[in-house]
Design goal:
The complex is a heterodimer of chains A (243) and B (298). With 243 residues, chain A is mainly α. Chain A is built from 11 helices and no strands. Chain A has helices spanning 15-25, 27-45, 52-67, 70-81, 83-89, 94-126, 133-164, 174-182, 184-198, 205-228, 230-233. In chain A, helix 1 (15-25) crosses helix 6, helix 3 runs parallel beside helix 7 (133-164) and helix 7 (133-164) packs parallel to helix 10. Chain B is of the alpha/beta class and 298 residues long. The chains are: A mainly alpha (243), B alpha/beta (298). Chain A binds chain B through residues 1-12, 14, 17, 20-22, 24-25, 74, 77-78, 80-83, 85-92, 235-237, 240-243, and chain B through 30-31, 60-61, 64, 67-71, 87, 90-92, 95, 97-106, 110, 114-115, 117-122, 124-125, 128-129, 132, 160-164, 187, 190-191, 194.
Chain lengths: 243, 298
């Protein structure tokens, strides 16, 4: 007999190792997103009139989305190399695989947001500013949840797109375009708010948060629906390596 | 037996003891396009079953369907009577895809540990397969740093992490250097003594060397299922290489250094040797030039 004996246990969680792989395969995105968010956080503190509290909460979700592309990078690599095929052969379902990559992306968001906020907010407080209620609400109600929402949107749409299209590489591939998908929720929110202001509709902080929360709720529902409908939309053959 | 059309509902059976793999009237493919049509066979005898066919015949699709990755449009795949989509059935087989399936971003050892976790094997099993496939020297290298052949070796290693009753090996020796390919062939040969091994290859000489049965696919249908020893080529061609030039063979067809002669069968070889000797032809080598498996690709 050559090999060991089989175990009746079901497939284990692969989130930990996928996260590690995402930090390796998506290191360019992670370094880029984290470094830029940290540098910008620091730089805004030294700009005229300290633009940090007014600008940074709006900008950080964009960098968080870019920095979390590692999960999608692992998905694309695994599909192309036949790793998804192998994992499905051993009992993992497409939904389990998608959730695995999604959770890894969200963990990467934590790094970008943690480092960016740590640097930016740290310098802001170190320069003698107080953490106002307005800033805390902006970070807690918009910046942090929108960072996760933007990443979840980019990763889920990117995985679907990657699975539904022929394998492509470079900037024209889903992984190349996903950062632009990721900025749609935060930029869309800002555009709607700006558009309302320009059209004469009164915009206030409450309006902004209402639109922001609505956008995040839409993204959350959208992602959950895509994950729930995965067996309907994505047959197994969509995840196989090219024959 | 040469390849021919696929009679609808062809039922080929090799009976014996142990586990059984049955494919009942299976049609499968991708996104609604049928690649496999009405495939029916049943195997329960240990041995190496060589799956052959030209490109596009459906070999990889057959492996994916047998392993439960592709759900058939019609028909069922069963292991010991249990449908392949049940975990108990799926846990009885190993599948090696034609792509290496190795997860980038990890070292060889880490990748094998990941697979060991997925399959329920132990770290000790990882050490054992590292030795079995001579992977120790690459164990701590990232997969991205390996050559295609080294990656393939690592991917073959995962098949041996656990003992299963059925092994589906899609081109396990592709991209390997001759030495490693030979080592893997010998491991597969050993597997085939106790297990059912379905194995595809484009190397017909290799297939003939290690296979006991042949499953030939043509246009998505099972064109042939038989013992390899029962296959007889439609023609039997030998090549002779000479020690020194001879006028006697000057008019024969040539392939490289070999002068070709078609014979009615292997039984014609002694007469050919006598004939050559009587004409003073000094032989360096005589070998069979065609492989009956080639006919399956026509």
């Amino acid at each position: 007999m050559i090999a060991g004996t089989p175990s009746p246990a079901g497939p284990p969680s692969l989130v930990g190792i996928t996260f590690r792989r995402a930090t390796t395969l998506g290191r360019f995105f992670l370094v880029y997103g984290t470094a830029l968010s940290a540098l910008l956080g620091v730089a805004l503190n030294f700009s005229a009139g300290s633009a940090f509290p007014s600008s940074y909460p709006l900008i950080l979700p964009i960098f968080a989305s870019v920095g979390s592309m590692g999960g999608l990078a692992v998905f694309s690599s695994d599909r192309l190399k036949g790793t998804l095929e192998y994992l499905m052969a051993y009992g993992l379902t497409p939904r389990q695989l998608f959730v695995n990559f999604l959770v890894s992306s969200l963990a990467l968001v934590s790094i970008v947001v943690g480092v960016g906020l740590g640097a930016g907010l740290g310098v802001y407080l170190a320069r003698g500013h107080a953490l106002t209620t307005g800033l805390a609400v902006a970070l807690g109600l918009y910046t942090v949840p929108m960072s996760y929402a933007a990443s979840a949107f980019a990763t889920t749409v990117g995985m679907y797109w990657s699975a539904l299209s022929s394998p492509r590489v470079g900037l024209n591939s889903p992984i190349g375009l996903a950062p632009f998908i990721g900025i749609l929720p935060p930029v869309g929110t800002l555009l709607i708010v700006a558009g309302l202001g320009a059209s004469g509709v009164t915009t206030s902080t409450v309006t902004f948060y209402s639109i922001g929360v609505a956008a995040m709720a839409f993204v959350a529902v959208f992602v959950v629906v895509l994950l729930a409908m995965i067996d309907r939309f994505l047959r197994h053959e969509r995840l196989l390596s090219p024959a | 037996m040469a390849a021919g059309g696929s009679p609808p509902g062809l039922h080929a059976t090799e009976r014996g003891g142990g586990v059984s793999l049955s494919c009942e009237s299976v049609s499968a493919g991708y996104l609604g396009a049928r690649v496999l049509r009405e495939i029916t066979f049943d195997v329960d005898r240990p041995g190496i079953y060589v799956v052959l066919g030209p490109n596009g015949a459906g070999k990889t699709t057959l492996f994916r369907t047998l392993s439960g990755i592709l759900r058939p449009y019609q028909g069922t795949v069963r292991i010991d009577g249990e449908p392949i989509d049940r975990p108990r059935a799926r846990n009885r087989l190993h599948y090696l895809s034609h792509a290496d399936g190795m997860p980038d971003g990890l070292t060889v050892r880490e990748a094998l540990r990941l697979y060991a976790r997925v399959e329920g094997a132990s770290p000790g099993d990882v050490d054992r397969v590292l030795d079995l496939l001579a992977l120790r020297e690459f164990a701590d290298r990232f997969l991205s740093q390996l050559s295609a052949g080294q990656r393939k070796r690592a991917s073959v290693a995962r098949v041996f992490l656990q003992d299963r009753a059925i092994y589906l090996l899609d081109e396990p020796t592709a991209n390997l250097d001759p030495k490693v390919a030979r080592e893997i062939r010998s491991i597969i040969l050993e597997l085939g003594r106790e297990k059912i091994v379905l194995y595809s290859s484009h190397n017909l000489f290799e297939a003939r060397e290690i296979g006991r049965y042949v499953l030939a696919l043509k246009d998505g249908r099972l064109a042939l299922f038989d013992r390899l020893e029962n296959l007889r080529g439609s023609h039997f061609v030998v090549g002779v290489r000479l020690l020194e030039p001879s006028e006697y063979v000057a008019g024969w067809a040539r392939e490289g250094e070999y002068y070709l002669r078609e014979l009615p069968g292997p039984e014609g070889v002694p007469a050919l040797l006598r004939d050559l000797e009587s004409h003073g032809v000094r032989l360096r080598e005589l070998r069979e030039m065609n492989n009956p498996l080639e006919d399956l690709f026509v």
